[in-house]
Each structure stands twice: as structure tokens, then as C-alpha cells.
Amino acid sequence: MATYIFFFFYNALIGYLLVREEYESIWGMVFYFLALGIHFITNDRSLRREHLKLYDKYGRVSLTLAILIGWGTGTLYKVDELVISFIVAFLAGGIVLNVLKEELPEEKQSRFSAFVLGLTGYTLLLMLI
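^ thats the sequence. predicted structure below, dont judge the formating
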């Protein structure tokens, strides 16, 4: 249950930043959407694997509603830039934690070529921005 409460809050903050985050260009918003979309798919698979029946019955809907609640809150309320900075830092830490826990392969299953491909792709993406 604590996992769902955390992810509900986490998703609501992501929804809030959809409205309140300052994007320098449309590409920044597109990349934010794509990165978090992939991240949500990974979280979905992880939560389903750990809590199959409960997640399928309540979790998916409640976590989707959390994003909409965060988005709705963002359209109604504006907080100080300092609070936005804390929200972004919190979400970045949560994303890093989830990536380390769920998305990185075990040591014996890792491949150097996949690492180099990811490094090259991210470098090109940063150069485009």
C-alpha cells in the first residue's frame, strides 16, 4: 500500500510539472513527454509484476488519475519557483532510483555495446537541444 501512495504522489507531481514547468522550446516538452512515457511503461511493468491482482484492479486507474489530478492542480495553483525546483529535484531522484532498481540489467546481463549506444544517443540528443 505504501508503494501506491508513493507512486500516486510521484505521478501527481509529474502531472503538475506538465503545466508548470518552463520549456524553452516545444522539443523540451516532447522529450519530457517521451522520457516519462517510457518511464511510466517501466513502472507499470514493475508494479504489475510485484502486485498483480491489486495493481490490475486499482493501481493502474489510481495512478492515471494521479497524473490528471496533478495536471488539474497545476492549472489552478501556481507555486514559487523554489518549490518547483524542489519538485524537479525530487522527481529526478525518484527517476534515478527507479532506473537503478528496475531498468538497468544485472551485471551478468549487461552489454557494453548497449551502453555505448545509449551514451551516443544521449550525447546527440543533448547536442540537438
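The chain has a mean pLDDT of 82.
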